[in-house]
Amino acid sequence: MQPERQPKCNPGLRLSFPGLALLLPPTTLAALADNWLREDCPGPNHAALVTGAAPSQAVLWAKSPGVLAGRPFFDAIFARVNCQVSWFLPEGSKLVPVARVAEVRGPAHCLLLGERVALNTLARCSGVASAAAAAVEAAREAGWAGHVAGTRKTTPGFRLVEKYGLLVGGAKAHRYDLGGLVMVKDNHLVAAGGVEKAVWGARQVADFALKVEVECRSLQEAVEAAEAGADLVLLDNFKPEELHPTAAALKARFPGVGVEASGGITLVNLPRFCGPHIDVISLGMLTQAAPALDFSLKLFAEGTAPVYPALP
Question: What is the pLDDT of residue 2?
Fold first, then answer.
């Protein structure tokens, strides 16, 4: 199946990087799909005797507004059950319900075996992308050009899906795991015996390949972290009226140190955290609290025009 071209100008689409799917290793996608399918059907699939193996087709419908994300995971799941997916909308599309998003073909029992797993994954990934897109839009409307990012507050076993959703929505994924950035948090400072010792230890293991970020609770800690060699300072749980003067004072002394704001930030209050001395704003709610989008998969008879069933 040929990849779709991203349209040059279409206000109905939220364009994302066309190559984002290349970030997802095929073997990892296959392994995830296998695990999800095995969780849902670890033994006999009794419903398969109801449907049989006759060739069938179904349409994927989007029933709530948002951003479409998660096509590679949807494809991987149905590939594992010998079904083929044809997409009508590109990744990152703005969904206006009720929208016909894709068509799936394959043996009836296989199609229905993959249905719930594929819908769950697509709904969750699209929900994260939609929340990320809303956060980025709020930041841009506030006139702020910094980085909106997620956090490591992800669902166990589902991190790749949620981090990918952030990227499709236009946000940054932040560190993928503990190896992506040396993050020195409050508990590390206590265990190490202070900011200077903690940063020194972090710099030893980070070497030239990784950046070191330090979570700070005051301007004094932020200055200590910067003096010790931190690349970034995380001002965590600061109120906006405290955040901006602290960031300004730190940048005045250490203009090359990045400043991240986090803690208690939502889509509603995000503009208050945007400022000229803030480089990154991270929101755990983009993955923790993003509502899933509503999708459904409806079979239709060959030779008929698929129409979303009317509500009773």
Answer: 37
